[in-house]
Amino acid sequence: MSWRVAGTYVESCNCDAPCPCRRIDGVPGGRSTHGICDGALCWQIVEGEADGVDLSDLRVVLATRYSDDEEGSPWSWLLFLDERGTREQHDVIEQIWAGRIAGEQLEHFPWAWKPSHLLAARPAQIELDHTPRRQWFRVRDALTVRISGPYEGEETITCVIPGHERTGEEVVAGELRVDDGPLRFEYAGVCGYASTFDYRSA
User: Fold this and answer.
1) Structural domain boundaries, residue 30
2) b/e string for 22-49 if b means 16 or more Cβ within 10 A?
3) Is 61 among the domain residues?
4) Is residue 85 part of a domain?
5) What average pLDDT does this structure show over 97-123?
């Protein structure tokens, strides 16, 4: 399958800012702050297409958890698909995000190259605003992330999910909340990251 998706990206997890999992001043990331990482990740696809299927203007959200102390640190994750999309669009996006088809996303998505447990993939009402330094996104009745402002440090920080080759900004989340099935957590004043992304088939 020939495909490409590009747009904006925002995430938050329960690590202290700056997130030690990221690359900081060129030093590769390592163990999460608390050993268990709870997070939520959001992509706004601005331009997207897969073998003639238009994926533009669709949204994708993950809720995630992994433990550094579990062998292989497998990810448990929920995949929320924009309810405005069709079943065909949802199927393609799930294949890309789950790493079932070849492409550059396999270099960016830890849940695709590590052992992982996809807990559910389902359509949902996804709302968002990726305006820099006041980003927010929400999955109705399940998940909320609100960015309160920038991280004030001067380090150069990059994140593997959008790509270390892309510039981005470490931010602070005033709210990170997930309440859906086995993933239930709530934090304030934790780390976040905002950038752009551009993934495509190999």
Assistant:
1) 3-194
2) bebeeeebeebbeeebbbbbbbbbbebb
3) yes
4) yes
5) 96
Which band of pLDDT confidence, cut at 50, 70 and 90, is reported for residue 88? very high
**Paired tokens of 100:** 């079932």
The domain tally of the chain equals 1
pLDDT digits (tens, 9 = 90+) for 116-148: 999 999 999 999 999 999 999 999 999 999 999
Q: Is residue 189 part of a domain?
A: yes
Over the Cα atoms of the chain, what is R_g? Answer: 16
Residues 6+ apart with CB under 8 A from 77: 62, 63, 64, 65, 111, 116, 117, 118, 119
Find where tokens 């330094």 sit: 133
Which residues neighbour 52 within 8 Å (Cβ) at sequence distance 6 or greater?
none
Q: Which pTM does this prediction carry? A: 0.97
- Single-letter residue type at 109: F
Nearest to 32 by CA among 64, 66, 9, 77: 66
Residue 178 belongs to some domain of the structure:
yes
